[in-house]
Design brief:
single chain, 380 residues, 4-stranded mixed beta sheet, 3-stranded antiparallel beta sheet, globular
Length: 380
């Protein structure tokens, strides 16, 4: 599991493991059942200063390396996948700010993200523009010193909870992807949240529609230049997808841990089912795939830390995200099988792991889109 982790990273992993077991995992089932925001878990993460890991030191954060951030994402997801997403979503929302915004915008928002005072969301997808980003209909029109935004965004994590929304809207529809621009919008400027989804998994992480009806945004909150939005969106996702892989690894690890303990205690034919070679082989295959996924995630994260010297980040991020999420889906399904009928009930957590794992194959780019990215890299 170490994969060349530094002593500091190993120590951080151990601290995170104890923290999650004590202050996050105990609440996961109840919030999943009630579809309620995991406030006490998020507050505990803030007290642990976890949001600061994702913000550069120059703006009040700890500026942790990406491998360390992946460890955080994995361990949180091992205890509660929804809490992991809740902590990570502000990083996704703020990556365009960190990499493309003015110093004024960075200094105003990033320190408050680091302390957990505010949260951020990322608004790219629309009802008819998910994978096909260039088809978005959300429109931003210049009006003096402001832009006026109209349209809606779908599948937005933390909708209604976040204080800021990084919004991609077209400023020149005729230019397709070259006409998309990026804006930082505050909730209090008139953003609406008419609908929240009743989801299969990640039920404690709110997902909903975000609507903009003549929302006036200062021109100072344009991130980058007009027409840079598509480039900003893809640059952001390349640097965020490896942490989705880390979430998937954490969910898979939780399933392995629980299934292994169950196999030692559950008896059939007069002995623990852990003695049955067929089941032992299933557990071994689950662990092998998960270790491989973890290594690929760490490699992608290390590439971000190194500044992507070979230009391979898009490829590695897509490979890590798709392989880790496919692994999580397979491993959690096998965990349900290992528990038999009990695995199909909500008395045990493996069915929740399976439901949570599914979304990692879909969000931040479906795994089919990831394979398009990988194949383009191989055939260029």
């Amino acid at each position: 599991m170490n994969f060349d982790l530094t002593p500091e990273q190993r120590a951080f992993r151990d601290v995170m493991r104890s923290f999650v077991d004590e202050q996050v995992a105990p609440y996961a089932a109840a919030h999943d059942r009630d579809q309620s925001f995991p406030q006490e878990s998020f507050d505990a993460c803030v007290k642990m200063e976890l949001p600061s890991l994702q913000v550069p030191e120059a703006y009040g954060g700890a500026g942790a390396d990406m491998v360390t951030q992946a460890i955080m994402a994995e361990e949180l997801a091992r205890g509660c996948a929804s809490t992991s997403v809740t902590v990570l979503i502000s990083k996704l929302g703020m990556l365009p700010v960190m990499n493309f915004a003015s110093e004024e915008i960075k200094n105003h928002y990033l320190p408050r993200i680091a302390t957990g005072e505010i949260q951020a969301s990322y608004c790219l997808s629309e009802a008819d523009a998910g994978s096909d980003v260039a088809s978005m209909r959300c429109r931003a029109l210049r009006d003096g010193d402001d832009y006026i935004i109209n349209g809606s965004k779908y599948w937005i994590t933390n909708a209604g909870v976040s204080d800021t929304y990084t919004v991609f809207a077209t400023t020149d529809p005729s230019a397709r992807s070259h006409g998309i621009s990026c804006f930082l919008v505050e909730k209090e400027w008139g953003v609406e949240f008419p609908k929240h989804e009743d989801k299969m998994g990640l039920r404690a992480s709110p997902t909903g529609e975000v609507v903009f009806n003549d929302v006036r945004v200062p021109a100072s909150h344009l991130i980058g230049r007009e027409g840079d939005g598509f480039k900003i969106a893809m640059h952001t996702l390349d640097r965020s997808r490896p942490t989705i892989g880390a979430q998937a690894v954490g969910i898979a690890q939780a399933a392995i841990d629980f299934a292994g303990e169950y196999m030692k205690s559950r008896k059939a034919f007069g002995a623990p089912i852990a003695n049955l070679q067929g089941l032992r082989f299933m557990l071994a295959d689950m662990a092998i795939r998960t270790e491989a996924a973890r290594a690929l995630v760490y490699r992608a994260c290390a590439t971000i830390d190194a500044g992507d010297p070979d230009g391979s980040l898009s490829y590695l991020g897509a490979a890590a995200k798709s392989f880790a999420s496919d692994t999580a889906m397979s491993v959690t399904t096998d965990a349900v099988q290992l528990l038999g009928g009990y695995g199909f009930t909500k008395e045990f957590p493996v069915e929740r792991y399976m439901r949570d794992a599914k979304i990692t194959q879909i969000y931040e780019g479906t795994n089919q889109v990831q394979r398009v990215v990988v194949s383009k890299h191989l055939l260029k």
